[in-house]
Amino acid sequence: MSSTASGKNGTWRNWGGNVSARPARQVAPASVDELAAAVRRAAEDGLKVKAVGTGHSFTSIAATDGVSIRPQLLTGIRRIDREAMTVTVQAGTPLKRLNVALAREGLSLTNMGDIMEQTVSGATSTGTHGTGRASGSIAAQIKGLELVTADGSVLTCSEKENPDVFAAARIGLGALGIVTAITFAVEPLFLLAAREEPMPFERVLAEFDQLWAENEHFEFYWFPHTGSTNTKRNNRSAGPEQPVGQPAGWFEDEFLSNGVFQVAQWVGRAVPATVPAIARISSKALSARTYTDIPYKVFTSPRRVRFVEMEYAVPRAALTETLRELKTMVDRSGLRVSFPVEVRTAPADDITLSTASGRDTAYVAVHMFRGTPYQAYFTAAERIFTAHEGRPHWGKVHTRDAEYFARVYPRFDEFTALRDRLDPERLFQNDYLRRVLGS
Question: CA–CA separation, 93 vs 103, rounded Å?
């Protein structure tokens, strides 16, 4: 995949294909000094500035008609500190490259999301996460940050240095400055035993608390129009390593999850009436399997079928009720939903605008195949999520604004006050930030 889907005549498009922008200029700085100079020059020219990674956000969080900063030259590991057990990487480093490089050094992040195409700064700035009973989002593993602020100066922060900036900038939405380097906590490479198995929807809901409590990383996919789910449990293992066998791995991951799934999506888009039947077949096509491997090979998988996504974080205690309401809504609506609903969890964290800030969280993600009308489904789902004080993922489709966020984030004012201090002229503003943070 290209570093971002860039179109003709300087048009930028995101991965999901639902956002485009035409920046006045695109800059790919090769150093922090060059980036700082580009920020100062933009301010002199009266242009707004946005950094953009791989365009994996479905919102217009990275879109600008000003200066678009592309990070592809700001990549690689700066240093590994084996005493402190940290790694410092440049902001444009793709998660995939970080994971592979760490594994070679016998190290790993504790937890990660299920896609690793994104840059480290794009993933953390939008609050990208996986699932975990005790381990949180990628941003929750940050120990230090370096960012270029609106006046072109370089600011570093950690729990000890500029702690107020550190509290907010780990998930900074690109509003506080441009992240140039991130220091992550790492640990010695370990093995995860994965167990995937189908389970009836009602049983997963009835036993959810137990499944959550008994597994380090629990998640499941529910197939709308069916009473079926596919559950995934990942737990640390002493070994031995037992990777997914090549033919089986290809069949499950490439053929079923990407190849057949792609064809099913095309058919569903052309003839919506076929969707429930396809869903029933899809939900039965996946069989139980177990395998043991290093973390990034278990947590992440390729995603070649393009989609558009909405994801909300609700209090973990409200999950089963939220899902029952979602199922009732789909059953009664006449909607045809061909993509499974993904459910994950995260423990409460202390990051100002983290979706898990101050509360134990469950995530419910709804998807639609790219090119199918998703508004009716997403609008109905969002009504359910917001009734439970849901917080939308910053990089996924939602319609919420600053007034709503001030209600569901107790520390919202803390973030906006910091933004007033670090970017009083709103150099890093765009339409999305104006909506979600206020002007």
Answer: 15
- Phi and psi angles of residue 305, each rounded to the nearest 5 degrees, phi first: -85, 115
112-147 tens-digit pLDDT: 998 889 999 999 999 999 999 999 999 999 999 999
Which residue, 59, 68, 51, is CA-closest to 14? Answer: 59
Q: How far apart are CA 273 and CA 100, in angstroms?
A: 43
pTM of the model: 0.92
- Residue range 175-210, pLDDT digits in tens: 999 999 999 999 999 999 999 999 999 999 999 999
The C-alpha atoms of residue 194 and residue 234 are separated, in whole angstroms, by 4
Q: Please give the backbone phi and psi of residue 203, each rounded to the nearest 5 degrees, phi first.
A: -70, -40
Distance of alpha carbon 334 from alpha carbon 93, whole angstroms: 43
| Beta bridge partners of residue 364, listed in sequence order | 312, 343
Q: 138-152: string of b/e by CB count within 10 Å (b at 16+)?
A: bbbbbbbbbbbbbbb
Report residue 67 as tokens. 């200066």
CA distances to 71, 295, 317 from 302, in Å: 22, 15, 31
Chain centre distance of CA 411: 21
Report which secondary-structure segment, H or E, holds 163.
helix 163-169
CA R_g for the chain: 21
